[in-house]
């Protein structure tokens, strides 16, 4: 399942030509996000969700006090309103009839930082007021999700750096505009400007400190394009107590090319500047200069999403090769895997045996690694760590097992692909595996390939929605960038066959009206596309005598026969959501899940799973 982001971010050439990211018209930048305030129309949460979806964004989620301050200050100054919908809600998660939970979250699953939540009046928790809005005072109110007010959409538009900043693999830079007289300031003013989020669009930024030589090289290659005259830029470099030092203590001692040895004229040149020619100089801290802000680069590039985070995908399983400082006794290795909802690897097919042998040839993996095989309970009767029996035809023993001195009860695999029994107390690396599809959100979901699918209960009339509401609900089931929820888009022949097999199942035979998919021709009449995925493939859609030229039938449904029909988008129908399987979960371990930002949206007001 691909998610196609219509990011409203453009490249704008600032000053003399360095490209910097800015938000599109109507959107305001703060940090690494773009925000849009809607005050000209008052709508329900469902309608607000749909509006945000159309611009590939989500209802706002607030993650820091600085962000909340910026939102309220901006709203008060530019968008006065009694309140704005946010993504905060306490909608029930497990039942269609359950009242509000009293547990307020962003969307369906993200726990809110309670320290940021100040209620105007304590929430009623009455099963009606399940959605929260924020006002210009920064206080929140719980309201009926069908109530009407303005709203704020939020879009992640970062490249790992705040909006408007230049980036390298390790650093983010803001180079002040040489054409703006207000950005010619003293050293102290420059230092304050960089550390003020409302000015710099960044939290935790500082006046430039040099971390690595690459920073110097990057800046000196860019500075000549910032202005046509000799320009100097303040750095976070000062002279005190007989020595020069950076204001960021962790900055490296990079050798600086000085214009001339710092001469501290009249004992007043105690602040460092970088010239356009890449040379450093000392200047009076009260003089006027441009400046450079700096922030560490935390997230530079998202890996290809295969549903396993940084673990390795093979078929429907995810594998973690845990070595280095994580070598451990067998039982500790087993516990380590459990922390990730995984088990020690189980070799239960010839395909897995061949794949694992190939992985062990990788020099990056340790020479020996624990598997789940053991005979701890009964000597000579080998089982896997999940207690299932071992099929010896998949195990290539290396003249083993021999249970040396009666103390070898755990099985490992070597780089040659052979197995050996070893003392379970031996400190060895390990291989964990997780069934990537066993962790779809609940038994209500159906797993296929690396996707999970949810067919809404069509006999429950309260679960019916129009297509926009259905799309908004499916998006609310997003957890993170690896697990993105969306209304069904059919993207391959295999997925076409799977969906057809599901909807033609006898259990759905009496669903005569069908399920919404994301297919529509709303943008161009007669040109049908799915909302996400690659270029539309008409061979994946089995029309039943359609499409026709009915101008009001702009959305596509799939019926119990596996055929597609046109319907008015306003019809209240069932629908099919899809989402990547959970894959590897978090834990107190060094294997981390790489998160890259795609849209996540608020739970619909009428349907929960």
Automatic annotation (TrEMBL):
Species: Dreissena polymorpha (Zebra mussel)
InterPro entries on file: C-type_lectin-like (IPR001304), C-type_lectin-like/link_sf (IPR016186), C-type_lectin/snaclec_domain (IPR050111), CTDL_fold (IPR016187)
PROSITE patterns linked: C_TYPE_LECTIN_2 (PS50041)
SMART domains from the UniProt entry: CLECT
C-type lectin domain sequence ranges: 30-154, 168-294, 314-433, 448-578
Signal peptide (UniProt feature, chain positions): 1-19
UniProt entry keywords in alphabetical sequence: Membrane, Signal, Transmembrane, Transmembrane helix
Annotated protein name in UniProt: C-type lectin domain-containing protein
Source organism, top-level taxon: Eukaryota
Pfam families, per database record: Lectin_C (PF00059)
